[in-house]
Peptidase S1 and S6, chymotrypsin/Hap
Amino acid sequence: MKILLFVFSMFCSLAHSQQTAQNLFGQHRTALYQIKIIELESGNKSSIGSGFQIDKSGNVVTNYHVVSEYVYNPDKFRIEYLAHDGSQGQLQLVDVDVVNDLALVRKVELSAQESAFPIAQSLPLQGSDIYSLGNPHDLGMIVVPGTFNGLKKSSFYQRIHFTGSINPGMSGGPVVNKFGEVMGVNVATAGNQIGFLIPLEKIQELLKNQNAQVLKSEQFKPRIQQQLLANQNRLFSLLNNHSWETSELGKALVPSKITDFISCWGGSNTSDTEALYLSVENRCQLDEQIYLHHGLRTGGFEVEFEWLNGKSLGEHRFYNFYSQSITGAGAGNNATKTDVTNFRCQQDKVTNINGVTNKTVLCLRAYKEFDQLYDVLFVAATLDHTQQGLISHYTLSGVSKESALVFTQKFMDSISWQ
């Protein structure tokens, strides 16, 4: 009997969810759009996403990454919308929030009857049913029921953990509560019914500019740089003002926990019985990056420490091996030659406040579109032992020179001998 009651309750819950989804779609489909980026030369769409109208003035919210091609090349693309009834029109860019992957666009021409989604005042309780709307794989608008699992834990960039399917083409679509009020925006999926949403707070911040003038094309990238600089100032303020926990790595003490939102792992080659040297690693990184366009991501942060013991190699062979290890580091983010310059490097010999002496290499490459931003690559190798040593390495992307230099000092002074 208990089994029958459980099955019946599950059936009723599913039926209620389906009915709610149908009602929401019927009620709000006139304010839900496919967003298309049209390549001017061919006249065909280059990419698609979803978007939703938030007022009677024609303002529409979508993801920044949906419109990024237009932001980078406004002379080669235009933004259009396609409504549920087949009507379409052009959109203008009002504002972007590149850090949170949001964009506000506006209809060029309004119809006689404009409709809009209401915006929620607060997030629902954890475990509540929520509904993702969008246009997956260009198949037409759908509603995907799912579960609100709260904000993602230990994350620098706030995201809602959503149990439900978010597929390509649904990016920028609204996620609503049972009342049809928007409380999130589709942004990414990790597969296996794990989705991530931009939370209500970030949407509300974007909507403060819904009455703003349309941005001119020459304002796009300065607006993005302003946001990236403000974001990195917040990040490095947290990193530099936090006391880093340390742990043993060979004969050294190195950072093992920097902040709660920086994930750290360890590893070694002790299981390799044929290895001629011992390698033990601690690696930490920020799991999220900021999307600028398909060939460029920024906002990355990686830190790595490797203890090497090569007594079985002999002093000469270990020195050659150790020197080669210094040159093995690379950039931590995707970037193309059209976006960044080549790295320019400076070598030095530095003794930190704990008496640890390092040979250091500091490399910077400039962003061609953003005159205050750089990618930074730093490698240091200790010189205090003959057949043992510590290699310290970090990469930062999209930072100012000032932030990089302050962080380098903190990074170097975090190392000591046991």
About this structure: DSSP finds six helices and 24 strands in the chain. Residues 4-14 have pLDDT under 50 and may be disordered. The first helix runs from residue 2 to 28. Helices lie at 2-28, 64-72, 200-207, 220-241, 315-326, 401-413.
